[in-house]
Design a protein that fits this description.
With 459 residues, the protein is an alpha/beta fold. 39% of the residues lie in helices and 14% in strands. It is built from 18 helices and twelve strands. The longest helix has 24 residues, at 435-458. The chain is globular, with a radius of gyration of 23 Å.
Length: 459
Amino acid sequence: MANPAADDVPKPGEWPVDPQDDVAVSKDRIWIDGCFDFSHHGHAGAMLQARRLGKELVVGVHSDQDILDNKGPTVMTLEERVSAVDACRWSTSSVPHAPYVTSLPWISHYGCHYVVHGDDITSDSSGEDCYRFVKAANRFLVVKRTPGISTTDLVGRMLLCTKNHFIKSLIRTLSGHDGPGNQEERSSAAKEMGQRIRDYASDETGLQPGPLVLSYTEPGCTPEASMASPDVGPYATIVDGVLPKPGQRIVYVDGGFDLFSSGHIEFLRQVVKTEEALARKSGWYDDNPARKERLAASNNDYGPAYIVAGIHDDEVINHWKGVNYPIMSIFERGLCVLQCRYINSVIFSAPFTPSKAYLTNLPFGAPHAVYHGPTTFMPLTYDPYVAAKDMGIYQEIGNHEFQNVNAGEIVQRILRSRQMYEDRQKKKGEKAAGEEAVQRREHMEKEAAALEKERAVNR
């Protein structure tokens, strides 16, 4: 059986990314491909499992047009989807414009022997298996699909305005005390959630310890209490990870990170770049005794900054943004942040306002810098970063190409092209949102926008 994709094999010099010459095929180099629309933790889970099967992971990303022709419209552009793939800790490199039907010449060109995909079936526009050619060549491996999360599921939450994904207390859910079902079901779900956090808190190999994962208990239990508490709550370690190394600056960032996307990713990347530029000026990368000491102590050099990401609770975000934000629960948002190569530690349930007491009592010590980006997603009535400014450690990341890509923008994209996404939902067998439900969503979004304007006036 001929491979129709063979006719589309690029000539030398025409491959979408280097190398342009064929790479020697290795079983240690794994290929995975997909749409990767929304960088949700299901995609990251597939990449993690694939990375564990080899030493390098090449990620093929389909074009917007190929996805439209075979599956339906994408929410995110190709550039936004590639940005998300490149930010995943377990991705070695990405290949945009990878064919929708996985092509043996393509994977062989980039030196990959095996192709990995989840245990669900993916078909092209003619209804045929997208992996039929690599399966016939015995170069196909199957990994488990991550349950409970998909792009289709997230689109459904937006269109139907549901809130049943909210988690009141992550730490109680992880202990089996909170959540749906009976005690046995809650305990089973807690065990699975805890294991997933441990899996995602791994290094670039997916096999060794990576980010340190903590949770924070805010004094008081209301969103308002998160605004300006002078007290410090306790920390709990969820996963032991790699601690700051000698000489590293402690850098703190926080946010909702809802529908973790290129806007969040580019902000985090710019934080790392800014810290690297500061380190370069201070001689961090020079061939000096300090660098030789680092190399002698750890065999490999390490970056100049240790990035700690605080993630806010669902209730706190909903208090400020309304509707059914966050679209992702704190567990889902935390996994998205955990898989990102630009962070070193995650603090679940971080306070909305990082007070001086909170910052100075971080387990790593007071941060050298607190960064905030050019986002306007949260309609606030006050400045949450007064303490960081008073301490002289507040820094802002300026405008960037993805600065307007946030949860609100993504929801608006869905609403603007609702009929196409409705058709896509129906093809997936998911419940479609009726006209009344969509009108309710649009009305709630208008109310939220009006509240944002009111708060801006009163600020």
